[in-house]
Design a protein that fits this description.
By secondary structure, the chain is mainly alpha-helical. 39% of the residues lie in helices and 5% in strands. It folds into 2 domains: 2-116, no CATH class; 131-218, no CATH class. It contains 10 helices and 2 strands. The longest helix has 12 residues, at 59-70. Residues 124-192 form the RNase H type-1 domain.
Length: 228
């Protein structure tokens, strides 16, 4: 889910920055504004819905996410819109309107919970591995890491966190590989995504990974037409 990739409030992070939602980099452009005014659907429209309904989890949580996406949670703001209340302020933050985002993230009651979430990287660093090679099949993600965008980018905070990890006292090399050449890692990511555990360590290959490892062992070749 997208919410899992969004960093919670962090005292060491940067201040919130205004960003233009019409472009992926958060920067305003006349073309994007014209497209929005014309009502042309965005390419990523519908991805959020697919992510919600394909998510492996409790039905009540899925329904809650659906309500949040539709802005149907009965916050004080929505109550006032429906004339069920004359006040739209948060009961705990009187100077702020209680929107859905405020209720689940920015409220003085919710924010401390987000702040307590552990964001330690429990992988190679905790195992004291000082030379690490990372292979990833998303060329866009690697470009963002190697050439960080401006603060207006929607993923600026996450990219800052990643680069701060890479800049620690160790040697980390990040390389792009095609998905066909990274089948084992792709399978691990897809199968572990539904786990509720913070970290999974396998002492032996899980069943879903055996076939991919066997093919890699014998040197099976997957052909892919790639752009030059």
């Amino acid at each position: 889910m997208k919410i899992a990739s969004i960093l919670p409030p962090n005292e060491r992070g940067k201040e919130d920055t205004l960003a233009w939602k019409g472009n992926e980099d958060g920067k305003f452009s006349v073309k994007a504004a014209y497209t929005m005014l014309k009502g042309v659907p965005r390419r990523d429209q519908g991805k959020t819905w697919g992510g919600i309904w394909k998510w492996c989890g409790l039905e009540k949580v899925r329904c809650f996410l659906w309500l949040c996406r539709h802005d149907r949670i009965m916050t004080n703001e929505n109550k006032k819109k429906r004339r069920l209340s004359t006040m739209d302020q948060c009961s705990k933050c009187p100077t702020v309107t209680e929107t859905t985002l405020h209720a689940i993230c920015d409220c003085s009651l919710a924010k401390p919970i987000w702040m307590k979430l552990g964001w330690r990287w429990l992988g190679a660093w905790s195992l004291e591995l000082k030379k690490v090679q990372l292979e990833y099949d998303s060329l866009l993600a690697i470009k963002l890491i190697k050439d960080p965008p401006g603060e207006a980018h929607p993923s600026a905070s996450l990219i800052l966190k990643i680069t701060s990890l890479l800049n620690r006292e160790w040697e980390v090399r990040v390389h792009h590989v095609y998905r066909e050449g990274n089948v084992a890692a792709d399978l691990l990511a897809r199968n572990c995504n539904s786990s509720s555990r913070e970290m999974l360590l396998y002492r032996s290959p899980p069943i879903f990974l055996v076939q991919a490892l066997e093919k890699d062992k014998v040197g099976s070749v997957l052909i892919r037409k790639a752009d030059s």
